[in-house]
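Minutes, methods subgroup
Present: GH (chair), OT, SY

1. OT presented the first of two proteins processed in the latest run. Sequence and structure tokens recorded below as shown on screen.
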Amino acid sequence: MTTAQLLAEAMVRAFGPYVRRKLGERGLPEPAGLDDVLETGGEWLRQTLLEVLALPYERQPRGPLEIFQEAMKFPTESLRRAGVPEVERDPVSRNALPGDVYDLAPASSRDISEEVWMLHLRWGMEKAEALAVRFRRSER
């Protein structure tokens, strides 16, 4: 398996536990049907990560952390349907992730899990090296 595939699988494995942990940290209730929401969100996350990470680095429209953050739309919508009030967020968070009204999205892959963080670093190093090689070749 490539580092990108390992990273995608680690993010998918961490998705449910991460969301449950964040709900607990924020004092938010687990909405009815959360298991189904997490399964749907996890499948979307897997498919999206694998599609994006299969592209050449320079053609990837967003990175793995952004995709994981976007996957918070699944629990967010479930909380909205349950009528859970939005949480207070600082202006920087509101501007950076306006749709993250329950403050669930991680600011860093380190927030997700140690495994995800280490794989994300490894993927980033591989991406930087590949882009540097292409850049050096284009200068010739």
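2. SY then presented the second protein from the same run.
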Amino acid sequence: MSETNASPELLKTPDGTPLKVALSRTLRYRKRTALLLVAPLFLFVMITFLFPIFDMLSRSVENKTLHEIFPETTALLGNWDETSGKLPDEAVFKALVIEGQIAAEDQTINKVGKRLNYEKSGMSSLFRKTGRQLKRFDPAKLDTSYTELVLDIDKKWKDIETWQLIKLQSPEYTAAYYYAAFDAQMTTNGLARVDENNRIYMTLFVRTLFMSTLITFLTILLGYPIAFLLASLKTRTSNLLMILVLLPFWTSLLVRTSAWIALLQKEGVINDFLVGIGLIGDDSRLQMIHNQTGTIISMTHILLPFMILPLFSVMKTIPPSYMRAARSMGATPFTAFRRIYFPNTVAGIGAGGILVFILSIGFYITPALVGGTDGTMISNFIAYHISQSLNWGLAAALGTILLLLVLALYILYDKIVGIDNMKFG
């Protein structure tokens, strides 16, 4: 039998190893090498992206503070009928005193007050006061019932709503943070909307979506002709102008935002120019800062390069012969652009649009500095609850809703436009 007709099982390498075995060994080695090369990136993504998201998701439903510090009290409250209109029995008050005294010594009782204060104001001061009193309490000198002892500490303990709140927040896991994110709260009568003056989060979500959509539209409107010009010019000239597009990236975001404050304020450059040319009077200066106008203007400028770059990279791949062929067949310049050139740039519009939208929906610094009351976005309140109010559960719930909202819009975009049609060049 000739070598060319030999079966693969009979072929061998110079060292005598069957060729099939050698090929399998080589493939396993390459796969192992590829896995080792990808492993650092995978670990980096796990540590810096997946783990924080999982931690955020868990914090949005975690409610172990009350259960861990007052385990017996919360267990006994489970048998209490909160709709009876009567206070819990003596056993609940005794458990509260014993566990409260331990928590006061360990300085953990304030955590309970802080957690309940998110649901009802005044709880933090109540538990601080109770902790101070119980710290001095000597069980051997008790000359009254535990119920009277607790009720004498503060009149809030006589309020049925205080005990109802404690029982409501006793479970280890809760959806209360998500209710709060939707401007609602759980009561003994079921789910109810919060007071109208305290309904802010749904308004913020709607405002964030509106402003992000408007900013995306404005960047398309401004960035498309710029990208078209850059793609139409000679390479040397377009490269020179591209430096001007990239120039803002060489400056700190904080500096660029501060520059817009100087430009947009009532005594700023823009108002001075409009007054100088007589377009407006000195007493009619425009209010363009600390509102939505200032946020939209400054964020449009900051995010404009993220729209221009994908558009330019896509436009650069469109052969000029397409437009010449359309013109030679009798199409007007506008018709050739509308039917030939523009459809080929839709992929770049989609890439730039989704990039700008996702960046703007989570923007923080610019709305915080120039947004004021009307121009802040949901990301500003997430940062507020993380760094100032320390209500990490509510911040996690707001962040989770924002994440799910972005994923839903991404899926919707994929259904309508198609991610496969999105190109960066």
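Chair's summary of item 2: The chain has a mean pLDDT of 86.
Next meeting: continue with the remaining queue.
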